[in-house]
Task: structure prediction
Amino acid sequence: MAGSHPYFNLPDFTQPSPPSTPPSLPSHQRCCRPSDATKGLLVALLGGGLPAGFVGPFSRMAYQASHFPSLELLICRCLFHLPIALLLKLRGDPLLGPPDVRGRACLHALLNVLSIGCAYSAVQVVPAGNAATVRKGSSTVCSALLALCLESQGLSGYDWCGLLGSTLGLIIIVGPGLGTLQEGTTGLYTALGYVLAFLGGLALSLGLLVYRSLHFPSCLPTVAFLFGLVGLLGSVPGLFVLQTPVLPNDPLSWSCVGAVGILALVSFVCVSYAVTKAHPALVCAVLHSEVVVALMLQYYVLYETVAPSDIMGAGVVLGSIAIITAQNLSCEKEGQVEE
Result:
């Protein structure tokens, strides 16, 4: 018989078989589920960008209320990461990670501490929305370049369109402010704030790239604990050398500090998860939603001026996020046979 084995009556795999169509499922059994990249981007948007948008304004409120130093704020945030050690102990995992990846895990923690320290210092001298804009813009561009150069990861045309659009929106927001820097000490401090925000974005992109190279059980809680540990070891001596500790006595400052610690921890965990599912440049582009939230709080809570260019740039950023999210929305039907 043609097309079958002469002895066992099995199909002849040496002959090309006609393409088979997957069996169609009844309408009530069809179900769509988002891809891993879409899940990562949604987690980055809802759990990473939106909570992080509150961190900058709350940090600025704590500084305006009691001149809370940036390094002391970083110390308080690191304290929220230390209880994760109990989870690692209950699971029987080493606190510092396996010996073969311990160096990279500590490097990831150090880069994140530098990124957060630069961000907290920047929001004390420049508006919170502008600081978040520069930090997220530099992290997006650096993540795209690093991923292309080191990981050889390509992006689709729609992804590049959304990436460039979000970067353009950030330029629209921060461009007019950079062109009108004042001369003298005030202008120098403002320029230094923008430089710190840029360095914070660069350190963030490097940290995300290092995290993608870590593959071991309990990776996420380990790096979260290491962030708190490394942050404390570096911030406590620096606080007494570079800044003056402050003990606020008003409830507003402590409320802002507690909110910063909780929201930042949620954002850290969600971003670390998202970067393992989607391209780091796309994750950073979706995190531009932090800029929109920070601008809204800057206007409605801090009563700081929001220029028309800020509103226009925020609209461009939201449109770019919509393009990236729509491009990565894919459905996988249940019952489909994957090769």
Remarks:
- The two ends are 28 Å apart (CA to CA).
- Residues 110 and 230 are 6 Å apart (CA to CA).
